[in-house]
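Hi there,

I know you've been waiting on this one. I reran it after we fixed the sequence typo, so this is the corrected version. Both the input and the resulting structure follow.
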Amino acid sequence: MNNLGFVLIGLVFISISLILSALFNLVLFEVVEHTWFGWSVSTLIIRLITATCMGFGLVFSTKGIIRLNLKKWLFFIIGFLIGFSINFAFTPIYDVDYFMHADKKDFKHLNKLGEQTKSSYRFDETYQVLAFLDLGCGHCMETAQRLGVNYYAGQKVPVHLFFNGDEQNINHFRTTFNVENYPFHRIENEHEFLYYAGFEFPSLYLVEPSGEVAYHWVGKNFNYTALDYLLSLEQ
């Protein structure tokens, strides 16, 4: 193979690495939906592939355009680190992304939630997730997208979405962020909505059949580990 061929192969690998980095979340959603890896493992696999492609890209590209007496593995390591750094720049790793960051916050007046939703919601003594989402909250939008992915990935535990706002805006939110398959409920009284959410958004409760709260997540604490846990539960 001539030098141009090596360069072209290297550029293909580099392009794959850059595309995976730029479209990390979209790729992650597809992997979670269509494989059994789950969220945490999928993120690691995508980052590993991204870094590996950059490593091979640097090996092939340098082989085609420069002559240095350096070992191929050294070029690979340099490329691997560059690829991982680029991926990290697009999608940083935060300390709350992994492991369970939840509390045991009690959900008071669960039996009155039906009244606030005009009987739209009724607790049926099964495992379920109660998700309180604010329509203008960025973290809520991200959470909704991930819940939508879990639906298509086969999550068995039902999710109930709770909103405060105009029904047209709520439906737009549900369609935009791919959660139209989950039942939703409106709490018209804003103070009651904030009270049930715990004055933080997004606020998600995993409720046991007994009515006790198994886990409560707020904000970024609803992470990859939490999503994997929901996927692992059998209703």
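Quick highlight: The chain has two domains: 3-90, 110-232.

Best,
R. S.
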